[in-house]
Design brief:
The chain has 82 residues and is mainly alpha-helical. The protein has one domain. It contains four helices and no strands. The model has no long low-confidence stretch (mean pLDDT 84).
Length: 82
């Protein structure tokens, strides 16, 4: 499925997610997480409505994630080559 919609995200995410968690997240993961939080707030859902509820889930996709992390992963794999 092709999409002709794109945007250049200019968002200072500093302090929006716990730094112990965010250090393991790519840019795409950070944007997905923040979008999820905003969607929950926009829907007016309380934590009781979605926490520990087996009928609640999230389906998310990304066209390619963060190119920076793709290069990092490829470089790491090349370093492991015999």
């Amino acid at each position: 499925m092709r999409s002709h919609v794109w945007g250049n995200v200019k968002l200072d995410t500093t302090g929006l997610i716990d730094r112990k968690v965010v250090r393991f997240m790519s840019d795409a993961s950070i944007y997905a997480f923040l979008s999820m939080e905003q969607a929950i707030a926009d829907a007016g859902l309380s934590p009781e409505a979605y926490q520990n509820n087996p009928r609640v889930g999230l389906i998310a996709g990304s066209g390619g994630g963060s190119p920076r992390f793709q290069v990092f992963g490829a470089d790491a794999m090349r370093g492991r080559a015999a």
